[in-house]
Structures are given as C-alpha cells and as structure tokens.
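Structural prep section.
Before we set up the soaks we want a predicted structure of the protein with Q9C in place, mainly to decide which crystallisation condition to try first. Input record follows.
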Amino acid sequence: MTNATLRVKLDSIRCNEEGDMLMNVFCHNRHLLHLPRRELEDGEWVENPDKPDRIELLKQSLSELDGIEIVHPRDFDESTLLLVHDSEYLGWMRMRCDALAPDKEYFPEVFGYDRMFDTGTPLMKNSLSAALDSVSTALSALEDVVNGNRVAYALSRPPGHHASKGIGGGYCYFNNAAIAARYFQGTTAARVSILDLDFHHFNGTQDIFYDDPTVFCVSLHGDPKVHYPWISGFEKETGEGEGKGYTMNIPLPTGTEGKEYKEALERALLAIENFGPELLIISLGTDTHAEDPIGAFSLVDEDYEDVAMLIMSLNLETLIVHEGGYNPQASARAATRFVKGVLASTG
Ligand code: Q9C
Ligand code: ZN
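Run finished without errors. Recording the tokens verbatim:
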C-alpha cells in the first residue's frame, strides 16, 4: 500500500451540529484478557502494575465527554508487526507463549539469553495475541486519522514504547507507535514525528528510528541517571548516520512541575514544527502525574489540558497512542483533561 492510496485527505474536521469537534477513541475489549500478575523488582516479586483498570477507568471517563465516541478497533494481520519487529522475535514469542499452560507466567532470562531486557514483562499463553490487539488498536486509530479525522486516540494496552525490533521490556511487547509510523509511511518516506510524553524514556522507539531521518523522535522524560530505563535518554543521544539530528532527548529532574514541563514541551514542539511532519504521533503516558506510583514528576490535572492545547497549536494530523500511567484514577483524570484540551482547540 502506498502513502498516496492510504491518505484519503478530507479537509474538514468532523463536527456535530453545534460545530463542536468529535473525536474517536479506540479501545479493544480484549485488553481485559491481558493479565500479567507479577514482576520481579529489586529482587522481590511484586504486583505487576499493568492492570486492565488503567484503561477501563480511562475509557469510562472519556466516554462521558461530549464529542467522544468509543470505537472498537478492527483486527490487523500479524504481518504488520514485521514493519518494525524481526521475525526471530515473533518466532521466539510464539514458541514461548504456545508452550505455556493457561495459568502460567514465563519470565525471560534477562541475562543475555532471552528477548526481554527486564523482569517486568512476563509472557503468558495469550501475550502475543494480546499485544497484537494493542497494535490493532493503534492502527485502527491511525486509519481514522488517515481517513480525515484530525485527531484520534488509541487506548493501547499493553504499552509499546520500550519495545525495540527484537526485544521487549517495561511492560511492552510490540511498539504500537513505531508500527503506526511505519504503517503510515507505507512504501514512501513520508515524514513522521513521534513525541513521547510518558515519564520513562522511549528507548525502544528511539532505537528503532535512530538512523532514520524520516522519523523525528522527541522525548520528555525523567532523568535516566536516576530513573528507568537508565541506559538511555541522555541529551547527547541525537541519532546516528543519516539519522543524526533526528532524535531529541529532554531529560527533566525528579519533581518537575507543569511550568518547567511546558517550557520543555515548547522546545520540543518548535523542533517538530521545523521538521514539518505529515503526521504527528503522541506517545501519551500519564505516569507524569503527581499521583502516579511509578513516575516522579509533579504534573496536576489541569496541566494536561495545557499540554494538549500546545500540541494542537501545531495544526498537525495527530495520532495519540496511550503508553504508561499506573494510578488508574489519576491517569483517567489526566487523559480526560488532555482530551478536553484537544476538543477545545479544534472545535
Ligand atoms: N524501580 C511504561 O511506563 N519499572 N513502562 C521500573 C524502577 C519498570 C514502565 C521500576 C517501569 C516500566 C510503559
Ligand atoms: Zn512510563
């Protein structure tokens, strides 16, 4: 499929009779079947925080907004995973998942022999299909944007931004946002920008596009000197080869509040504007909220509305893909304010 056939460009934003903007939010019921139980954290087994409520509360809260429609994604073929991931990774996952009894969790051996880089991302019998559903959620929302809606939001779970071509981790199996970027490009070199607002550095997304000048990747995140994933996200990482200058990292200190966050965001948005993408993908993690149990920023509910309005001022076609956010109540409030900001700026 070429980019030209993919992009049926309609010039209007879909509105109701009052002229208020309408936006589709894509959510798969089958994310309820993705039930990682544990993770190994600092040598202790603890409850895995990627629970269905993260998305269920968010969906519930968004569905109460005027102008929001919750849409069931369509299924995409497994071959779309190969736009980003290597077939060995897929084969390994299938082999591992198929071998598991329905109630068993497999924890990859992270010290060099397996294809997960941490102990937070267990495999269960249905992990491959659950992670493919999450990709389908992102791709269905992408289709919605390509079909003429300026913004769409994919409530993808499991998240994706820590997953690279041949390895997963950080609760991520397949990189939803990266696959959407490649799907959009089709066989062309269409310019895409990925802006990652999850608290954690998008090590997978960065790795996938590190030498690629067609996908400009920018992230705001907790300082990797102190915070997961520790190995990447420093300012000096700016891409390599032809991709030099097409990766931008803005690490921010523990406790960062809305004011400093939005200043950093404006720097990121300026760089995106200069790049001039044909599609903007937002990897939206709400673990930047002050009440998040894992993230360590201090954003409050209203900050998310400002953040969305700043992003919308770029006037780009925008796909929002959900990433982290581990206090379901706070995450739902944050995402709802974000969507209010989106609706306010395009109505
Ligand atoms: N003591 C996402 O937000 N645990 N993944 C770090 C540090 C892993 C987060 C614990 C956090 C992964 C998509
Ligand atoms: Zn995160």
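Observations: Residues 41, 120, 159, 162, 170-172, 198, 200, 228, 285, 287, 294, 323-324 surround Q9C (ligand 1) (CB under 6 Å).
Flagged for discussion at group meeting.
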